[in-house]
Write a structure and sequence with these properties.
Elements lengths: L4 E6 L1 H18 L8 E6 L3 H10 L5 E8 L12 E4 L9 E9 L3 H12 L4 E9 L12 E5 L5 E2 L15 E4 L1 H4 L4
Parallel strand pairs: 2-3, 2-5, 5-6, 6-7
Antiparallel strand pairs: 1-9, 3-4, 8-9
The structure holds 1-O-pyrophosphono-5-O-phosphono-alpha-D-ribofuranose (PRP).
1-O-pyrophosphono-5-O-phosphono-alpha-D-ribofuranose binds next to strand 2, strand 5 and helix 3.
């Protein structure tokens, strides 16, 4: 375990098992889709989850990438997610699958939903690795959530604190003293 972590809450095996479940859920949902759905990776946090879920799916999907950020180097959401990098393709009349690492305040999910439906997406489905309902500021929820987490600072498997810890293969809780100066 990394020295700056208090504990590991989800190990590689637990994550891999839920990735399979999420992929199977998506396969079932889109098995009769008329057109190939677009899976959207919300960079950077969802990068590993996105790759693992889409590779575990049997249903063909197109892949696209977007970078939305509202945290910067802070542990608190600015409440105003902004687009740093937009999609390559139009989502008009397409089934959009948003693949997120975490739904926390809900600002990012809310913004993405408004944006995709505003651009004419036929449907909008959200799969998230983590759900942190205790921090929700907007009444939004994912269609499929792999794990519910408590109000702790979680990092690893894509999730960062000030860009660190993203490449840990597991998810752990960051020691409070690492981020407390930012509270
Ligand atoms: C994180 C995470 C989600 C979003 C969820 O992104 O990847 O996209 O916050 O939080 P919310 O529900 O409070 O909006 P962040 O802005 O930290 O960018 P990153 O993915 O590049 O780390």
């Amino acid at each position: 375990m990394h020295n700056n972590l208090e504990k590991i809450i989800l190990n590689e095996e637990q994550i891999a098992a839920k990735v399979k479940e999420a992929a199977a859920w998506l396969d079932n949902k889109f098995k009769d889709a008329q057109y190939t759905p677009i899976a959207i990776c919300v960079l950077k946090g969802s990068v590993f989850f996105f790759c693992d879920v889409t590779r575990a799916m049997q249903t063909p999907v197109h892949l696209d990438f977007m970078r939305v950020s509202s945290y910067g180097n802070s542990s608190k959401s600015s409440g105003m997610p902004h687009i740093i990098m937009d999609l390559s393709y139009s989502v008009q009349d397409r089934d959009v699958i948003l693949i997120e690492d975490i739904v926390d305040s809900g600002y990012t999910l809310s913004k993405m939903k408004e944006l995709m439906l505003g651009r004419g997406a036929k449907s909008f489905t959200v799969v998230t690795l983590l759900n942190k309902p205790s921090r929700r500021k907007l009444p939004v929820k994912a269609d499929f959530s792999c794990f519910e987490v408590a109000n702790e600072f979680v990092v690893g498997y894509g999730l960062d604190y000030a860009e660190q810890y993203r490449n840990l293969p597991y998810i752990g809780v960051l020691k409070r003293e690492i981020y407390e100066t930012d509270k």
